[in-house]
């Protein structure tokens, strides 16, 4: 993952550069970790205040609004959407974020169903199950 360090006018965004450096230092293990009371090993790091998104109401709304500034106007702009991502370690957070974003999309929603087995062919053959990989 890379964070774009430039503003749209191609000037360098020093805040994003600092964030990149901090993320790299976390990944490299050079950020000082602290142990909580009762823990043997330090495994907690302090996130700098300038990287925390402040929320007075719905945190999902605040994160989405800070990440996708002009989402309503630019929801059909593929480049705009692929330049941004919200990362979270928990699936229930992902589901909440997706539900919030889908509500903001223009147009009617469509649900596509899937199947978990192969359709029976008109002629059953002995090797029919071998025609498709197990993942299918």
From TrEMBL:
<protein>
    <submittedName>
        <fullName>ATP-dependent DNA helicase PIF1-like protein</fullName>
    </submittedName>
</protein>
